[in-house]
Amino acid sequence: MTEQKEQAPVALARPTMILSGISKSYGAVSALSDVSIELLPGEVHALLGENGAGKSTLMGVASGTTQPDTGTVEVGGDVISALDPAMAGRLGIAIVHQHPAVLPDLTVAENIRVAVPREHLQFAGDEASAMRQLLSDVGSTAHLEDRVAGLSVAQKHLLELAKALALRPKLLILDEPTAPLGQDAVDLLFDRVRTAARSGTAVVYITHRLAEVRELADRVTVLRDGRNRGTVAVGDVTDDELLAMIVGRELEYTFPPKHRIREDERPVLDVRGLTGDGFSDVSFSAGRGEIIGIAGVVGNGQEGLLRALAGLSRFDGDVRIGEDDFSVRRLHDSSAYMPADRHHEGLMMTMSVRENAAVAGLERFRIGRFVSRRREAELVGAELTGLNVKAPSMEAPVTALSGGNQQKVVMARALLSQPAILLADEPTQGVDVGARSEIYRILREVSGAGVPVVVASSDAKELEGLCDRVIVLSRGHVVATLSGEEVTEERMVHAAVASTTLKKEDQEREASSARFSSLRRRLEGDYAPVAILAAVMVVLAAYIYSQNDRYFLPFNITSVTLLVSALGFIALGQTIALMVGGIDLSVGPLAGFLVVVGSFFLLDESSGATMVLGLLLMLGAAALTGAVNGSLIRFGKFTAVAATLATYIALQGFSFLLRDRPEGLISRSVTDVITYTVGPVPVAFILLVLIAVAMEYLLRRSRWGMQLRAVGSNEESSRRLGVATTRTVVLAFVAVSLFTFLGALVLLAQLGIGDPAQGVGYTLSSITAVVLGGTSLLGGRGSFIGTLLGAGLIVQLLNATTFLGLTQTWQYIFQGGLIVIAAVVYSQIRGTRRSVAH
């Protein structure tokens, strides 16, 4: 029974937010033109409009992620001159984005900690219990230690919703929140929205589903072409009137006429006994012109079945299309798959609209052995026009399009490939009502042309209106097959929720899955490489000692740990650069340059004040180098490689300008202090270990560490969460150079002289140590402890060549081999999350 929404007495309340005269343009494209809207406490305010109408842009202004060209933002009676995400959070504004602002390399718990202040996690005794309750309240089954990259699209949305509700906001903005959710999760979401509204929260609800507006909203505002087309009470307007406001015309129909099923017709698609990842013993068939629907509660094998039919995962069973049997490879080569997660699987976000649409149909554009650009432009343009894709141009980056228009590009690519079978997972997710009717029409035309069409959707009403046959999955099994008049929303929902009995094999599979998930979390953790490195180092040390019993003599321990200290400090700095998704090629020349600078001041004849001045100059030069690197990257828009390569060359040149040959003997008193030992272990090494442990703690437990990893994991999501991304990156590169300063001090003691040619090799060695330690070259994850062990292993290999009587060539062979092995092992371990997510 649908709960009736309660009309809140909000007419006399002070608005939570007023947006007045908001305009925003991107180049020549006007996204918003003089839009005004009032959001009242205790009210659910629906915001409707076609894709590209300006809804998300307007809410970007409301949440501080987008700065308007003109207009004012008033919150609680105060005009806010420059609203940003951090300020929005302090003002009690929370937003659930259409594309969740989650950080894939962080765990679920860490994602919550980045977004939710600690004071909001004190209601259940401890933070972990509070976070589990937040997830449970929105129906999420995610484990706190799961990597977000391994979550399903629906679970990412639920995590986003949990973070927003945890803030107990004054204004809650929900942008297409139900698009990937099953009916149970939708019902739970609606209950939470009603509860929030009753407590006085103003709720903005963006959707393309008019039924949800009827069930949930008090008032509705319609945007079209970036302008406000009216605000009315939901009870005072009909669906036809709303549709006319949204599209500017009357729609003739939503769903095209269905195909008349003929049981004696030879099937164009015959699936028998299909078993694969997440589903078992699935059978169905389809005649020419029929559309097959896949229904069921989200996560019951629908996605796995579609991926198998697309040839993206292995299966047992038979698939016959027309007169031919199709293997996994043949399905992969001849099917068109429209994934639900268009951002990660459906689109290449750095490429243009044309390139995304054309990539699967290149054979159609060939003239001889070459692709005809004219033919490509004609066919792609015609397809995009037929789908009414709104884009600045075909050469515009696909990121410039709204979510719904991006979905249309995915469909255009599928159609241009002229597939043997078309598979659509949530094909209208985030698509406006006008475009939906176009997509339904095209799917019907494709099916009528003899191409089997299989559609999975969490919207049972959509399957009812579109599909000729529907199979309902529960726990990967077919629990109902409906056709003709049987295809109704009620029957689908009943079949999905009524089948609750677990078969014995399902129970065994779920128990095994739970055990595997626990193991998987450990293997995907940042400390798996640490354990691997430690084991390798112990085995290598044992082998060397078995060949040469002088390996553990105090002199060798002192020499090795001193070498590790110099490389270790520099590598710890390099870890910070990689953590934010960058790299610092200048660390080696910087270490050499600092040694040269020190060689002018840290001499036997120098006074104490002169030595202190020299150390301060070295420290200042390091900090300045880091600031230059960070500024070139953030303000000069250089890539990290280009910026630090330029600094690399400059520092090397400065070193040779200061000294063209080795000169300036370092005072013995200075080197004695730096190389002072406790037993056989240098104090510098002890300090290195302590700092590495402290940095590891800060990385996991401090807000600075969370923000550092957040920026490297997904900078745009971090910005939406209120992280000061520019400051974080600039300070990260300053920190890199400060760690290099510490490494340079140890190097200075080792060399004992200002040599301009020294230090350069530390660039590659530091990167090698970081990679061996398990830090991702793409940013977002890693470990300072792993880096420390990586540095130790590199020095151990160098030392091994001496004790085993090998040439130095073997050192590089060992290093190269370990890097390759580490890359393969780590990628395989971490790659399991992708298969689990699917």
UniProtKB/TrEMBL annotation:
What Pfam families does the record point to?
Answer: ABC_tran, BPD_transp_2
| Record flagged with keyword Cell membrane | yes
A GO molecular function assigned to this protein is: ATP binding
Q: Which InterPro entries match?
A: AAA+_ATPase, ABC_carbohydrate_import_ATPase, ABC_transp_permease, ABC_transporter-like_ATP-bd, ABC_transporter-like_CS, P-loop_NTPase
Q: How does it sit in the membrane?
A: Multi-pass membrane protein
Report domain ABC transporter positions: 17-250, 261-500
This entry carries the following GO cellular component terms, namely: plasma membrane
List keywords of the entry alphabetically: ATP-binding, Cell membrane, Membrane, Nucleotide-binding, Repeat, Transmembrane, Transmembrane helix, Transport
Q: What is its main location?
A: membrane
The protein's name in its UniProt record: Putative ABC transporter ATP-binding/permease protein
